[in-house]
Amino acid sequence: MNVPFVDLHAQYIGIKGEIDEAIASVIRESAFIRSKFVTDFEQQFAAAVGVKHCVSCANGTDAIYILMQGLGIKPGDEVITTAHSWISTSETITQAGGKVVFCDTDAETFTIDPAQIESKITPRTVGIIPVHLYGQPADMDPILEIAKRRGLWVIEDCAQAHMAEYKGRKVGTMGVAASFSFYPGKNLGAMGDAGALVTNDSKLAEWCELYARHGGKGEHKIEGINSRLDGLQAAILSVKLPHLGRWTEGRRRVAAQYDALFAPHAAVRTPEIARDRTHVYHLYVIRSENRDALQQHLNKAGISTMLNYSKALPFYPAYARLNHSPADFPNAFHNQSRILSIPIYPEMTEEMVQDVATAVIAGVVE
Ligand SMILES: Cc1ncc(COP(=O)(O)O)c(C=O)c1O
Question: Is the pTM of this model over 0.85?
Fold first, then answer.
């Protein structure tokens, strides 16, 4: 059986009536930019996360960038972030005028290793951006403790972890602010690019709103940028938000089935979840010693896989200027050649999960 990596059409079919009606409403009202569809979604999403403010924007990358501007980053300020993530997390630091300082990941959870953060702090450090990678929260308490003691801000990058929890607290509620992506394949995805930032800091929210809308309509109080969530995407996200809990349960069902099927096979290393966290399985990332051959084997069997990410950020040409070597980030370096993301989405049937698992087991070297 062919198994795609995600199946957005299957999701659409499940809620087609609601989505079609929402799109038709936006078109009927020509509510394409700044409309009640946008403000409604902002309120609904803030309530779902449990924060005071949500400022929507064009994508999750902009959300991180806008937040750093709002926090007053200055040229040469250093920001510490994880070595293994999507490049949005680090490229925005540079775009905002800051200097990227990478920190290695925890060997098992793939998220930033708090024990290594302190050694990266210099007098120029202003903030830390942990990423809740693959859908599992980073170890936030020690990060927040260091940040508080050293006077740093923390922006949570929640692009992959909508509604995941750390010690009973939702991601997005722990740092001074947080960014979300609603890229179509995300756990809560639009039908195009979309993103948002959330915060309990009213002044920060107000500034970010102003900045993302050309510094204010009519009266331009500051120079800003144009980063908007459009009405169609907002209406689609409002339809999808109430389904997110059910979809997350679907992802957990798939993950639990994989976990059980892989349990007797030590050569397939399944995701480890820290005891104090919940995982929302944006990705189900296994590790194997023969990753490349396994990926080819699955490809031949009609099973789509991805590498998230085949190189840790410091090892891309984009960061050659930092002159890093594998010894600087041993955990991220070790994992980058072993990780393999296999299909996970709520609409996967038990048979599909079984087929993927059977193919994986046949393809690993025991
Ligand atoms: C960890 C992480 N941060 C940030 C982003 C940026 O989101 P977007 O693609 O909406 O700009 C993504 C999504 O691709 C991501 O996975």
Answer: yes
Domain stops at, among 241, 257, 278: 241
Number of Cα atoms under 13 Å in the Cβ half of residue 363? 24
Domain count, the chain: 2
90 Cβ below 6 A of ligand 1 = no
Res. 34: pLDDT tops 90: no
Q: Average pLDDT in the 196-214 region?
A: 98
CA dihedral 320, 321, 326, 328 (to 10 degrees): -160
Please say which residue of 226, 241, 256 terminates a domain: 241
Residues 69, 175, single domain; the answer is yes
Amino acid residing at 177: A
**Predicted confidence (pLDDT) per residue in 63-76, tens digit:** 999 999 999 999 99
In this structure, what CATH number is given to the domain that contains residue 71?
A: 3.40.640.10
Q: How far does the centroid of ligand 1 lie from the alpha carbon of residue 4, in Å?
A: 21
What does the mean pLDDT of the chain come to?
97
Range of the domain at 210: 8-241
Report, as an integer, the average pLDDT of 76-82.
Answer: 98
Question: Is 93 inside a domain boundary?
Answer: yes
Ligand 1 centroid to 339 CA: how many Å?
19
Q: What is the CA radius of gyration of the chain?
A: 21
pLDDT digits (tens, 9 = 90+) for 114-141: 999 999 999 999 999 999 999 999 999 9
* 41 shares its domain with 166: yes
Same structural domain, 130 and 261: no
Nearest residue by C-alpha to atom 12 in ligand 1:
159
Q: Is 158 in the pocket of ligand 1 (CB under 6 A)?
A: no
**Residue 301 burial (C-beta neighbours within 10 Å; 0-12, 13-18, 19+):** middle
Phi, psi at residue 195, to the nearest 5°? -160, 175
Q: Is 156 in the pocket of ligand 1 (CB under 6 A)?
A: no
Q: Which atom of ligand 1 is nearest to the CA of 131?
A: 1
pLDDT at 218: 83
